[in-house]
Design goal:
two-stranded parallel sheet; alpha/beta; 4-stranded parallel beta sheet
């Protein structure tokens, strides 16, 4: 897999079960191209499944030797990560 230009994926305000399929498809396409930066500043509500999907996407990027970063996550997203005990899984991918 050849490395291309960085892809940017902007997350919507609400990432629930209704939105997760569309976001997953966008992430899959982006991860086929190269490194991915996820813009998470607009997130107001996020489901547990959505957070686990992001962890999975980061693992896919790692296997392809691409960077995967979550840029400036909102307070709501950061709180959800901590409440679910996922801080360790997200620690290496979050950038301010």
């Amino acid at each position: 897999m050849s490395k291309q230009a960085k892809q940017t994926v902007a997350l919507p305000e609400v990432i629930d079960l209704d939105a997760i399929d569309g976001i997953r498809d966008v992430l899959i396409d982006a991860l086929e191209e190269g490194p991915v930066t996820v813009q998470a500043g607009a997130v107001e509500r996020v489901s547990t499944n959505a957070l686990l999907m992001l962890v999975s996407a980061a693992e896919t990027a790692r296997r392809h030797q691409f960077d995967f970063k979550i840029e400036a996550p909102s307070a709501a997203m950061t709180t959800a990560i901590e409440r679910l005990g996922l801080g360790t899984q997200f620690s290496g991918m979050i950038t301010p």
